[in-house]
Design a protein that fits this description.
The chain is α+β, with helices and mostly antiparallel strands. It contains 5 helices and 14 strands.
Length: 248
């Protein structure tokens, strides 16, 4: 956990005191929780940890914080689950955020190389759901690498019907809002719905069909995105291109 003052309360109020990204302010009656009062050593977890976890799991923090949706206490230590990075606005801050993300990935996955994603390629069925705003995330998997967005806005390609193999159609531009790294078995029904599927089983089956066998503890990358305002009409950006398979 980064060195930051964490304020815990007996109600749904929690924040990082040095960020300004909090959704709620802390009641001044409650003392701030420091790293020592959170019992981050091997000592027995204290009551503050329990209260903090109850409230933290419902909060979303800044782009450079852990996603505490899977926070758990093991052997007296607070350990985080999936990493989530919410990219800041205005876009001028994006480059610095991206560098911070790349550094964190190198720390968290030292055995894997980090590679940039330059585009999203989908089947036409899923691309149509993006254009109709029924799909706001996409999940990617690579057994040996972890990825990150190459820039704040990435093009969306779809396989053109009756087109030659490896020919795709550019349909829209997507602004990357956040990226999350989770285990395969950490995906949820909410992940399935935001990805345009009717159930978690359908999502998991589709991923296994496309990528092959994925182990429960393998890491997947979940991108959250939004259509750029100028790219909401399907025909405005429709042209055919040939992409190398390795770049897809």
């Amino acid at each position: 956990m980064d060195e930051a003052g964490i304020c815990g309360t007996s109600s749904n109020h929690v924040r990082f005191s040095n960020t300004g990204h909090a959704d709620h302010q802390c009641d001044s009656r409650h003392r701030p929780l420091t790293s020592s009062s959170l019992c981050l050593s091997h000592r027995r977890p204290c009551d503050e940890i329990a209260r903090y976890i109850v409230h933290a799991v419902h909060e979303k923090f800044a782009w450079d914080r852990f996603d505490f949706s899977r926070v758990r206490v093991e052997s007296g230590e607070v350990r985080s689950g999936p990493l989530q990075f919410v990219f800041p606005t205005p876009p001028g801050l994006y480059d610095a955020a991206l560098e911070r993300l790349k550094t964190r990935l190198a720390d968290e996955f030292p055995e894997r190389s980090s590679v940039p994603r330059e585009r999203f390629v989908m089947t036409e069925r899923l691309a149509d759901k993006v254009l109709s705003e029924q799909k706001s995330t996409t999940i990617r998997y690579d057994r040996d690498r972890v990825e990150y967005p190459a820039g704040p806005v990435l093009p969306l390609y779809a396989a053109a019907e009756r087109a030659p193999q490896d020919e795709y159609r550019c349909l829209a531009r997507l602004r990357v809002l956040s990226v999350r790294y989770s285990t395969f078995n950490g995906l949820t029904e909410a992940d399935a719905r935001s990805d345009g599927f009717s159930s978690l089983d359908e999502l998991l089956g589709t991923l296994q069909h496309f990528y092959g066998r994925i182990m429960p503890d393998d890491t997947v990358c979940i991108y959250e995105f939004a259509l750029e305002r100028t790219a909401t009409k399907r025909k405005t950006l429709a042209w055919n291109v040939v992409l190398q398979s390795a770049s897809v």
